[in-house]
User: What shape does this take?
Amino acid sequence: MSIPESTHCSSIHCDRVTVAFGDQVAVSDVSLDVERGEILSLIGPSGCGKTTLLRSIAGLNSVTSGEVRITPAAIANEGQIGFVFQSPALLPWATTLQNVMLPLQLIGYGSGRTRREKALASLASVQLDHAADLRPDELSGGMQMRASIARALVTEPKVLLLDEPFAALDDMLRNDLGRLLLSLWQRQRFTAVMVTHNISESILLSTRIAVMRAGALESVLPNPVAWPRSPAQMRTQAFAEFLGVVSDHLRGRSEEQPERSVMSDGGGS
Ligand SMILES: Nc1ncnc2c1ncn2[C@@H]1O[C@H](COP(=O)(O)OP(=O)(O)OP(=O)(O)O)[C@@H](O)[C@H]1O
Assistant: This one.
């Protein structure tokens, strides 16, 4: 698996973004560019503003000052931004298939038949087509999260935003879904931003890691771990060393490191 070519997706630009809720400044003067076709992880201590920044990128939060731009601009208007929440948030009374068809209905995509075919294809991409007629309470936690990913990807978004998508799952499922996410990214070439608390997960799944502390962007670290990624890499020296670097940045003990180009440093095949 190599980093996908970046011709079909969007990039995200946060320019001096500040978000305040009353007197509470959740995000403070954050400037961050997410390049086409990369997966950037946002990590940092609880309450440091990760979700608020992610929701601002999605347009779910308004920013107090600064600007979020997604290019090409039409992306935001065409419903080409997918969002995966920590909780699968499936409609309990609808079948898995109906849940996945919902975004297509909301954007008025095609006929009922084409929506059904597209939703079934999206379910198949997460190996869940056999569960199309089951309701959420008949699915395991991992199946619900796969359905949630299928729902986010059914419109073939150019940008995928994920807020701690695997936090509630055990380690094995986490690894499986992480691998699934990478293979979908490889195939669909979306640009992704993923909030996570898990440093190992951020290293395994991303091209760069943005570390936030107290609302501010502490650093953006190119991920030097080679591609293709697999859980076996967690036992390598390169992985352990980078984990130490990320941990230091999280604790604010880092030496300032110049950022390098993700495609030349974080990538390769
Ligand atoms: N809608 C809101 N109204 C008021 N305060 C908010 C709102 N959303 C977030 N905050 C505050 O903004 C700060 C950042 O919250 P945010 O959820 O972005 O942090 P986080 O880094 O994602 O935390 P966690 O890792 O625990 O999910 C917190 O102090 C939170 O209480």
The mean pLDDT is 87. Residues 11-80+159-167+188-269 form a domain with the Rossmann fold fold (CATH 3.40.50.300). The chain has nine helices and nine strands. Residues 21, 24, 26, 44, 46-52 surround adenosine-5'-triphosphate (CB under 6 Å).
